[in-house]
Amino acid sequence: MNIVRKCYCRSYQLAFRLAMPLLPYREPERFDSIDALPPLLERLKIRSILLVTDRPLREAGVTQPLEELLEQSGIHCAVYDGTRANPTVRNVEEARALYLGSGCQGIIAFGGGSSMDCAKAAGARIVYPKRSVNQMKGLLRVLRRLPPLIAIPTTAGTGSEVTVTAVITDSEQRHKYTMNNFTMIPHYTVLDPAATRTLPPALTATTGMDALTHAVEAYIGGSTTKETRRYAREAVRLVFENLETAYQNGDDLAARKNMLHAAHIAGIAFSKSYVGYVHAVAHSLGGQYNTPHGLANAVLLPIGLELYGPCVYRKLWELGRSAGIVDQATPEQEGAAAFIAAIRDLNGRLGIPEKLPEIRREDVPAMAAHAAREANPLYPVPRLMDAAELELFYEKAADWSR
What we know:
Layout: H1 3-19, E1 29-31, H2 37-43, E2 48-52, H3 55-59, H4 64-72, E3 76-80, H5 89-101, E4 107-111, H6 113-127, E5 138-139, E6 149-153, E7 165-170, E8 175-180, E9 188-190, H7 201-220, H8 226-248, H9 253-273, H10 277-289, H11 293-308, H12 313-322, H13 332-349, H14 364-375, H15 387-397
Parallel strand pairs: 1-9, 2-3, 2-4, 4-6, 5-8, 6-9
Antiparallel strand pairs: 7-8
Helix pairs in contact: 5-6, 7-8, 7-9, 7-11, 8-9, 10-11, 10-14, 11-13, 11-15, 12-13, 14-15
């Protein structure tokens, strides 16, 4: 990246960092069980609500206890279960239409990050009826308060129940982008480990690595605070101590609860300190190939940390200490390498591949350009890269040897 562009990016990031304490970040009111919802909805005077979820969850009966609870409480529940793994503009419009047609007064997002992203974007379309979803992409385009939004995560990874972000795919353009607005933080969240109990091992693994990626990228960037560093270190510790247990035994509710907490605080950390190129590249892969976000992050994280080079050695050493991988006497470069190796080893034990075979050489320049546009100048990455430099992420993640 040329020096003029670097100066612009760093100046933009500095201005945003200085403004952050003045921005209206908030945390949702938290509950431990869905049993808290009927009294909450009564307090909010909500008699009809939209449930945004996905079809596999509903067909597996995971949403049934919630639907029955709402019915028993006399609350009408319209269900939108068409959410895709990478929610699309069409998903958002369908959810919005059902909300309006059913006379709903609030939204429950039940599922992983995709359901929450769809619900957030639908809420934005409800309060901005004359704007398309694409017109609201980017930073601070949604300033109006959304309808009451309740998030119930069934995965422990995205942290979407506490973040400012929704990630949407434009299927026609084969492009995935973010909407970043403080108004899109859910108003309430239910962190119930029982809701994650049926999550298959493969999704437990990739969503858990998503949480780790949030924590690591928030920690190594240039816009950290004492609070976000503390949350990121704690999240890293919890992931290394609990993810493999949750993967091997989904009924271990203690491990599930700890992973929910890790995802939650990692979400707070990256909402305030932002992410980096791993996320930008992962979003481009999701838009181009529908690659699941957690899987893309898991594969890309060690690659990205190596590409950043010496500028992250100290911080990776510190995270290695939090994870119990290195000790005080370990040299920084050695500790950073050990932490990256530990991420790769954890991926391997979780059955996560080292490569993404869907990546095609001819698609790389366009995807790298998308990633560069998303990340620069907003993401306070430890080392700035342009689109040409970001192509290395794809090349190292690709399986072109076949």
